[in-house]
Amino acid sequence: MFNSKDFIVNINEDVGSDHDESSAAKKNRRWKETTERCSTFISEWTPFSLVASYFIFSTCLYMYASEGVIAVFWFVYMMTNFYIAGATVLEAFMSITPWREARKAVAEAEESGWLFPTPSNQLLILDLLIVAYLPNEQDIIMDRALYALQKIDYPRDKIRINILYNTPKPIEPLETELHLLTQRYSHARVFKVPNSTSKADNLNYFFSLDTGSDLIAIYDCDHYPQPNAPRWAVERFIADPDIDIVQGRCVVFNTEESLLTSMIAVEFDKIYAVSHPGRASMWGFGLFCGSNGYWRTSLLRDLKMDGDMLTEDIDSALRAFSRGSKAVHDLNVTSFELAPTTFPAFWKQRLRWAQGWAQASLKHVKMVYNKPVDPIRNSYKRDFTARFGVLSLLLIRELSYYLVTQYTCLVLSFIIVKFPKSGAELFRLVYFQYPVSQWLFIISVVCLIATLWITNRVRSEFVSRWMIVVFSIQYPFYLVLSATIGLYGHARQIVQYNSWNPTSRK
User: Where does the secretion signal sit in this chain (predicted)?
Assistant: First the structure.
């Protein structure tokens, strides 16, 4: 017999059961969210704790060390600083030849009415890629795309301007406007990369396409390539068939926004116009630096980009070098880019670079001793000069972070234990504790001045002499900051921090 009372009781029990299950699901979800937040917090702050503990422990250690032990450490740090300064100034002097060759090439082009050696119909087919993370670069991508399509001086039947972008959510009407560019410009291509979460994903997607190009140029979205930059790069490939990569010079153009951007601009002139070409001349190998780089298509499609690396550009450059590929730096292949305008944006960018370099160094330092493997050039041999260059770039550079910060901790211990009463006493305390340090300090300063003098000779139109003077004054503090960021990158690598923070654009 049907019992309505029993039916109502059963219904209530079922509803109560569903309610209990729903509450349990909510509790599980909240617990999972809390756990994830705690895990993120620990992952974010553990590197900071490690670096802070490193500085505190080191400073305290020197405070209680004997005079003899401190003298030994002081001598080691000053000698190391002398080596780094000496290597830097040698790279600077070695960069003079590439700079003169670039100026000579420009002078010859001007005399010939800008008629390049290779006729237009014999130029190589070029795919120029503009890679963008759309939410972060939605305000600049259309401007950069139109600039590349309208201003780059290269035969349109020989070049394709490819816009590669990824976005976690639709952004309209911008996306539609981007795709409409293909109707206005015959050499425009626009690709919304599916399932992409990184620059490496965007590039690897394009490498899977058969476009029939001879060369591929890679640009970040904030760049303005100089109109003749592609032509200069292609002429290098045609003049020397052994060249596999041409890395151009990146110039910061937003120098007037802040002191930070002006200092980054000087740093970029020092790196791209002095250090990179100088190192390539001295050690015998160049590097692709992530943007304004030109590759032979076959090599790039073979190597691809490793999405597990934070600096996939450096990793791909080192993998190319490991198999004997030839990379050169050309100062006429110029591109103009944005520097971070705020310190937090600068900090995030440099932390990503530091951890990425640490990853790449751990992975590729074996090139110091291992046997090269080249599937194309079986005769390739890595000589002693190149091996020592790898040692300097990947190992000594990473260790220099500890040497600079240890010297800083040593000086801090002096200041705490023997607190100076005047500026002159502080100066003697920091730089002239021991007689030998006087000569090492003076020589290091001379090396710095020589490097900055050469930088001044090759500075871009956006950098003034006054900016270089300010940069030289704050350079010791910049070294300590860079070394601290390097340590932070190591700490992040230890805890396997893997969050990707794109650089803020304006």
Answer: none
